Amino acid sequence: MGRHCSQTSSKSTRFAKLQEPLNQIFNSILSDSSQKTYRRAIIHYKSFVEEYGIRFQLQLTNSDLILFIAHLKNKELAASSISTYISAIGFTHKINSWPDPTDSFIIDKVLKSVHKGKNQDMRLPITSTILNQLIDALKQTISNKYDQLLFKAMFTLAYHALLRIGEMTVNNKNYNHVISLSQAVILHKKVVINFMDFKHSNGKQFHLEIAKNKNDNICAVTALTNYLTLRTNTTGPLFLNSSGEAVSRQLFQHALNGALNFCGLSIAYYKPHSFRIGFATDASAKGLSTETIRTLGRWKSDAFKLYIRQSGQISNI
After folding, report:
1. What Gene Ontology molecular function terms does this protein carry (predicted)?
2. Which of 145, 180, 243, 317 has its Cβ near the most Cβ atoms within 10 Å?
3. Could you give the CA distance from residue 129 to residue 274 in angstroms, rounded to a whole number?
4. Do 51 and 191 reside in the same domain of the chain?
5. pLDDT digit string (tens) for 129-188?
6. Where are the beta strands (DSSP E) in the chain?
7. Does the residue 122 lie in any domain?
């Protein structure tokens, strides 16, 4: 008996050495961005079961999944997000060798129905013309000189660099993709943004050059230069508020809403993402190829084509 226990213990010790490489193998199955997305799926599912008083368990049936899809739809999540979260649940089942409820006729039909009835993206583009109006409005809606220069730099760079909101502001102290001071370099008549980490980057870097604009009012080079003359010379995020802290998503939204209201534009249709939509729309109207626009905006797929608004879709609501 004693020798058997000794052999078992010895075998366990030998296998323990394999635990670390085994963990590395499983962690490398999914990219960092996919792991974060899949974790969000579990968070949404936990929220769902808590809201409806259901016992939490990860091994689901078709019925569980249909109710969860209905819950996500009720929360007005995008159809693409719902599909991604269901894929995450399917992956969890496969990796655990459980029967996969996502691989069924009924779930396939439910997801197709969700996509057919998906809400139309009503966000309007902040084109160069509207950007010009918003920049002028900042002088009336913000009294602090520093904040005027800060948000002028943020608005112009959000447009010309097709920035995502998470690349220029923090949300719940999340700095994952926020551009730092060292990543923005001002050279002669241009600014270079070195994207070290961004959505779908998967370890790749991207360098974007923005030339000086003929219209100085919406020129990102001029705006960023003027802002940096007042910014404290410290490391950290590129955009800091007057207290020296990273600009929050809420503060940026507040400044944008103030400018929109002053211009008589609806805050229901113009959002932070409207800067990206605006540049893509303007670039398309000027004849830039879809491949060039995709590259400039750091889009992984052709989904960005949905953002390009035709002239008939643009209005000052």
Report:
1. DNA binding
2. 180
3. 13
4. no
5. 999 999 999 999 999 999 999 999 999 999 999 998 989 999 876 677 888 898 899 988
6. 184-187, 190-195, 206-211
7. no
State the DSSP code for 119. Answer: P
Task: Give tens-digit pLDDT for 206-224.
Answer: 888 999 999 999 999 999 9
Look up the pTM and report it. Answer: 0.63
The residue with tokens 């929050």 is 248
Class of residue 212 by CB neighbours under 10 A (exposed 0-12, middle 13-18, buried 19+) = middle
Residues 136 and 272 in one domain: yes
Q: What is the DSSP string of the chain?
A: -HHHHHHHHHHHHHHHTTHHHHHHHHHHSS-HHHHHHHHHHHHHHHHHHHHHTPPP-SS--HHHHHHHHHHHHHTT--HHHHHHHHHHHHHHHHHTT---TTSSHHHHHHHHHHHHTPPP--PPP--HHHHHHHHHHHHHH---HHHHHHHHHHHHHHHHTT--GGGTSBBTTB-TTPPBGGGEEEETTEEEEEESS-TT-TT--EEEEEEPPSSGGG-HHHHHHHHHHHS-S-SSBS-B-TTSSBPBHHHHHHHHHHHHHHHT--TTT--TTHHHHHHHHHHHHTT--HHHHHHHHT-SSGGGGGT---GGG----
